[in-house]
Amino acid sequence: MNAENLRIGDYVHIHFLKNTTTEQAKVENIDIENNTIILVNQRKDIIKIDTEDKWKQIKPIPLDKNVLKQFGYKDSIKTVYGLVNKNVYEKVYIFKDRSPILVTLIYEDGVFKLVQSDDEAFYGCKTKPSFQDLHIFQHYLSDNMYINNI
Fold first, then answer.
1. What's the rounded Cα separation, in Å, for the pair 39 and 94?
2. Cα 6 from Cα 56, distance rounded (Å)
3. 3 within 8 A of 32, measured Cβ to Cβ
4. Any bridge partners for residue 48, and if so which?
5. Tell me: the pLDDT tens digits for 38-96?
6. Less Cβ crowding at N or C end of the chain, within 10 Å?
7. What is the tens place of the pLDDT at every residue in 131-142?
8. Buried b (16+ CB within 10 A) or exposed e, 93-104
9. How far apart are CA 48 and CA 41, in angstroms?
């Protein structure tokens, strides 16, 4: 992982080698030219990542149900486009104009898949793309759904 793979607002894991702990941090600033990022952890500590050794400590956060719940997704057993699925995770985002958008993910085949309506699909929906890492999911939400805060 390096600065080019990340965006401001992305969440990553920092693996501290000295005490073998891992914590979550948010990217607050990026300098791609110098391959440097500034992270802020949950205690509000500011952490500068600017050397090869420090970059080795930065890992993507695997997308799982606990991470989704941490960011406000609710799990349920429900029918999505006629398909019953036990692993449904949803969150309603409200835009500045107060219009809502429902983001629905299903867990299937070891990955989370975004459920999107598609009139040409057999069940009226498609379940792509799939996500394994939180920051990649964040990028998709930002680029395709204009959601900048997970």
1. 27
2. 15
3. yes
4. 38
5. 999 999 999 999 999 999 999 999 999 999 999 999 987 665 555 556 688 889 999 88
6. N
7. 999 999 999 999
8. beeeeeeeeebb
9. 11
